[in-house]
Design a protein that fits this description.
Layout: E1 4-7, E2 12-15, E3 30-33, E4 38-39, E5 41-43, E6 49-51, E7 63-64, E8 69-72, E9 81-83, E10 90-92, E11 98-103, H1 111-119, H2 121-130, H3 141-145, E12 148-151, H4 154-193, E13 205-207, E14 217-218, E15 228-233, E16 248-253, E17 262-263, E18 267-271, E19 273-274, E20 283-284, E21 290-294, E22 299-303, H5 311-318, H6 321-330, E23 332-334, E24 337-339, H7 342-346, E25 349-351, H8 355-393
Parallel strand pairs: 3-10, 5-9, 15-21
Antiparallel strand pairs: 1-12, 2-11, 3-6, 4-5, 7-10, 8-9, 8-11, 13-25, 14-22, 15-16, 17-21, 18-20, 18-22, 19-24, 23-24
Length: 398
């Protein structure tokens, strides 16, 4: 079968949204989609704004249906693709900031194939290379339509989409399994210690400063004029759902980073500043010794007393709602960045059950973590397989 290379716009039009006014919004009526609702692979409708049914006529040409493929066309999320879920039937909002890939010739292109193509690295790279604007990057409908797409015959497109759908389903199930294990850890914690906010079991409270074996330490700031090259963690290492040992980059420093600012498995690393208040103050222990990696000045390191608190317990309680409330109350914002400092962290207070129970919790968590590690390894293999299938599919090699 022959695969032809064509411009996407020959068979697909990217239709923008309708710019409703904020005063049009209501709690009831027809849901509309904003750019913030377009997320990785899906469209979040839980927080969709609404307009009265009497206003629908204004934007009826911008209606979206289940299965439609939307793209963010402005801002930090430019290029993100979301597929409209089956329980949604509404309108696009935000004028040209959200686009809908509308197929004009269904005899030439399959929607499932199109979905995987516009999500593929090859298409995303074209988007990144074509965006304009620095403070507010954006891309136009015309640019999106002018990108090339490899188009095999329709039946082959459907076959490719079916293969990629199956691979994506396997990845999704693996991610769900990992999420369920996260829920299990939370359930174990609540069973053993109760809600740390209300403290129903009456555990004693302790200040974070009283758990430290040495003073808190800020990380080291890289320097553009530095002459010493070293690996340095990025904030994403500690702002996800677990420590990410692969989240580092190469930077330069004025001098060789001291050992006290290298990544040590005994140090609890805390996010010192972030534009998202829900991430500032998050903390994790490194999963291994990383003496070749420095932690940056956007992190604070805490060395704890192991005879008072167990690392798995600290990691869990620190990222619980009891501590999050304190961190978000204490955080101060400067130029859009929320920050906490060492003094604020020292004043954080939380429950401290007996070490024996903490250790029992740690043993149970480690068993769960072993399962999560196996699932993550399997997910990594599936991710690699999916990427390979994508690459081959859109080069006509499947």
């Amino acid at each position: 079968m022959t695969t032809k290379l064509v411009l996407l716009g020959e068979y697909v039009k990217v239709v923008g949204g309708y710019a409703f006014k904020s005063e049009d919004f209501t709690d009831k009526g027809i849901p509309v989609i904003r750019i913030s609702d377009v997320q990785d692979g899906t469209v979040c409708i839980d927080k969709a704004v609404r307009i009265p049914k009497t206003h629908v006529g204004k934007g009826e040409n911008y209606c979206i249906k289940p299965g439609d493929i939307l793209i963010a066309m402005s801002g930090a999320t430019t290029g993100k693709i979301g597929v409209v879920p089956n329980n949604f039937d509404g309108l696009i909002l935000q004028n040209q900031r959200v686009g809908n890939f509308r197929i004009t010739d269904p005899e030439q292109i399959d929607k499932g194939y199109l979905k995987h193509f516009v999500s593929s690295p090859s298409y995303q790279n074209q988007i990144w290379n074509s965006m304009v604007g620095v403070a507010q990057p954006n891309i136009s409908s015309k640019q999106l339509e002018n990108f090339e797409i490899a188009l095999p015959p329709l039946e082959e497109q459907r076959w490719i989409a079916e293969i990629l759908d199956h691979a994506e389903e396997l990845r999704s199930k693996r991610r769900e399994a990992i999420a369920q294990l996260d829920t299990l850890t939370q359930a174990i914690f609540l069973e053993m210690f109760g809600d740390p906010v209300t403290n129903p079991k009456g555990w004693p409270l302790i200040y974070f400063k009283d758990l430290l074996s040495m003073p808190l330490r800020n990380g080291l700031s890289p320097s553009n004029a530095g002459k010493v090259t070293s690996k340095v963690l990025t904030l994403s290492a500690i702002t996800g759902n677990a420590f990410d040992e692969n989240a580092w980059k190469t930077s330069t420093f004025q001098s060789v980073p001291p050992i006290t600012q290298r990544v040590d498995q005994s140090d609890f690393l805390i996010c010192r500043g972030n534009g998202n208040i829900q991430l500032v103050g998050k903390g994790y222990f490194p999963t291994r010794q990383m003496p070749e990696v420095t932690f940056p000045d956007t992190m604070i390191a805490a060395r704890i007393l192991p005879e008072l608190i167990e690392r798995h317990f600290l990691q869990h309680i620190w990222n619980s709602s009891a501590v999050r409330r304190q961190l978000e109350t204490l955080a101060r914002t400067t130029n859009g960045t929320f920050k906490v400092n060492q003094t604020m962290l020292e004043g954080i207070v939380f429950v401290i059950p007996p070490l024996r129970l903490q250790s029992e919790f740690a043993n149970r968590v480690e068993a769960v973590e072993k399962l999560k590690t196996a699932h993550r390894a399997s997910l990594s293999e599936l991710d690699a397989l999916f990427a390979s299938l994508q690459h081959r599919a859109f080069r006509g090699e499947l």
